[in-house]
Amino acid sequence: MSDALHNPASLRARSEAVAGGLPGLLMSAERLAATILLGEHGRKRAGPGDAFWQYRPAQPGDARRAIDWRQSARGDAHFVRETEWQAAQTLMLWVDDAASMRFAVGDRPAKLRRAQTLALALAVLVIRAGERAGLAALPEPPRSGRAQLYRIGEALMEGGDVPDYGAPRPTVMPLGSRAVFLSDFLGDPAPVAEALTAAADRGVTGVLVQVLDPEEEAFPYDGRTLFESMSGAMRFETLKAGRLRDDYLARLAARRAALRDLCARTGWQFHLHHTDASPEAALLSLWSALERRR
Questions:
Q1: Which residues, including other chains, have CB under 8 Å from residue 183's CB and lie 6 or more apart?
Q2: Which of 100, 142, 154, 266 could form an SS bridge with 196, CB 3.0 to 4.6 Å?
Q3: pLDDT in tens, 239-262
Q4: What's the predicted TM-score (pTM) here?
């Protein structure tokens, strides 16, 4: 560890930076989550729960106490009253905090900020529904309750040295849970394939969300251009940037096709989101996709 991590002044500065930005992130996430109207969250099948689901004809082996005698008195058959299974679900989130996610042009939000806001808004919705949320990259188990929103928000805003491109390396992925991974997915695709394959083996389904700035799609560069990674570790200068456009766009399309194929093979979904697009529409689309996975 570096001396800075052991320096009380450095630790205090980092804590204050996180605490200073958290209210704004949480407020944005809760405002965004408020655009989604929450309904009932039953599982549409019989099981433990309080909500009535259906009557079914009594079968051999049903206990006498399971029979609804009032409903049965209306005819000659006996009926059992079933409740809807309302088992709590778990949502695991991963937000890529690599340097490439800090890219932004003009007054558009950085990719990282949009990804953080969408992830925390999903956590708000899940926790409001009485379910659990957690961060896949941390060892702590998913939890419910408002205090968990602060834990997730603080973890999302933790700073520090980061690589140019990130990769999901989940620490906690409960069996049968749902997950959302948000990144630009411009780095090495191998860890992404490994993470989704391992998740599928545990019965985890979810959504990959590729977050890009529109300029990364358009490649509006021509003539002499200096390309530099967000961390400054990589630099490339060319006198004819326009000649790179077709190759760049072809590679971007190939990467996206590979991600879609990976999702199809592992039972996940792929969503594309641009930072100039509506976050409300993106959240609704994500929430609907997760609800279909229930």
A1: 94, 95, 96, 98, 101, 115, 166, 168, 208, 209, 210, 211
A2: 266
A3: 788 888 999 999 999 999 999 999
A4: 0.76
